Amino acid sequence: MSSRPVPVTLARGAYQEFVRIQGILRRESVGGILLLVAATAAMLAANLAPDFYFGLRDAHLGGTVFGIDLNLSIGHWAADGLLAIFFFLVGLELKHEFVVGDLRDVRTALVPVVAAVGGVAVPAAIYVAFNVADPQAMQGWAIPAATDIAFALAVLAVIGSHLPAALRTFLLTLAVADDLIAIAIIAFFYSKHLAPAFLGAEIIPIGLFAFIAYRFQPFLTRHWWAPWLTLVPLAVVAWVLCYAAGVHATVAGVMLAFAVPVRPPAGGDAEHGLAGILEHRVRPFSAGVAVPVFAFFSAGVVVGGLQGFVDAVTSSIGLGVILGLVAGKAIGITGSTWLVTRLRHAQLDPDLSWIDVFGLGVIGGIGFTVSLLVSELSFGQGSEFDDIGKVAILTASVLAALLAAVVLGSRNRHYRSVELAESIDEDQDGTPDRFAR
């Protein structure tokens, strides 16, 4: 009688999925570097030319459309408008993972999803522990809950970490699950003054968007201009109604992404489906323009010299955010992964050790884009608490990056040997021998 195989945590998946993930990670790493440049430029502008920076950020554009006030500041447009494009991509990646990716199989999805939950719960608990006595500060409990995959990948690119296939897949899947939790938090906890009429009306453009996307998918994928003429106008209407309904407008991007088909109508590779094609077309603009512009208008904070910096990072909000991101993420992700491995009576992949999982947990402490957004939603853009939260986010992200460079950098020699082994294809069938078919 054959013994039952021992489940493996962080096992390699299919080679085709690994190749897809490699492409995403390469593109995101470039976006992460632009994000870093934008954040640095914002801090310099805010502290060296504050009148110019805050005057530009707070300048208003727009007007009233069908009774909806869209006269918003440039900073507001960046947070609600440009980030909707970023969240559209997040939604596309989520749907891909649920339909054809790792999250479609409960057994495969269990570890990254549980790790993501732990990576959200522990940082939030740490923040709450520092701020439970202050009801206003408590509004920022979700600030340290997010992971910025683009910034994390930029750090990996800088330190030159040759992460093995299983770790790269785990990192991206973890980030996708983390994004799903962040979207739910924004939708349920940061929606204010709901307007049911606008919320109900939003069903119409999203329904039409889904109908056209599914019914005319072959036409939309053959002609590059077709989605711009048919889907984009409906997306704009859905965004406006979402904003007017009191739900944070970035959620509209996720709902629209869920309305896009992943598989081609005649079957075949999901990369040739409408979701894959839109992802390839939209991601360069999101990574190269939308997210860096948001970072520029959100990361600028007047520090107030050394004393101002010390006051910010030693405040209850500052300590909650910094310890939540740097320590909470590492503890939550590593601890949850270890716990689910033990409960499943599984074992870690032989090429990996728990220090590798801890290193990914540390990388998860780089909470930038979504953390900045949540800080603004919690306290109001430009408020005193918002500035403290943003100083803490930037500090935590730098500390997490430095710690990750030490932990993962020390394993680079081992990673190179694993990477070499993963490239061997002795039977010359086009799939390296260590990957599943």
Written overview of the protein:
This protein has a single domain, classed as Na+/H+ antiporter like domain (Na+/H+ antiporter like fold, Up-down Bundle), CATH 1.20.1530.10. It has 437 residues and is mainly alpha-helical. The strands form 3 sheets. It has a two-stranded parallel ribbon with strand order 1-6. Strands 2-5 form a two-stranded antiparallel sheet. Strands 3-4 form a two-stranded antiparallel sheet.
Helix content: over 70%
Mean pLDDT: 86
- How many domains? 1
- How many beta-strand elements? 6
Strand order in the sheet with the most strands: 1-6
Indicate the radius of gyration in whole angstroms: 22 Å
> What is the succession of H and E elements?
EHHEEEEHHHHHHHHHHHHHEHHHH
Topology:
Layout: E1 8-9, H1 15-48, H2 50-58, E2 60-61, E3 64-65, E4 68-69, E5 72-73, H3 74-99, H4 106-131, H5 135-138, H6 149-159, H7 165-189, H8 196-201, H9 203-215, H10 217-222, H11 226-245, H12 250-258, H13 274-298, H14 305-314, H15 316-343, E6 347-348, H16 354-363, H17 369-379, H18 384-409, H19 412-422
Parallel strand pairs: 1-6
Antiparallel strand pairs: 2-5, 3-4
Helix pairs in contact: 1-2, 1-6, 1-7, 1-13, 3-7, 3-12, 3-13, 4-7, 4-15, 6-18, 9-11, 11-12, 13-17, 15-16, 15-18, 16-18, 17-18
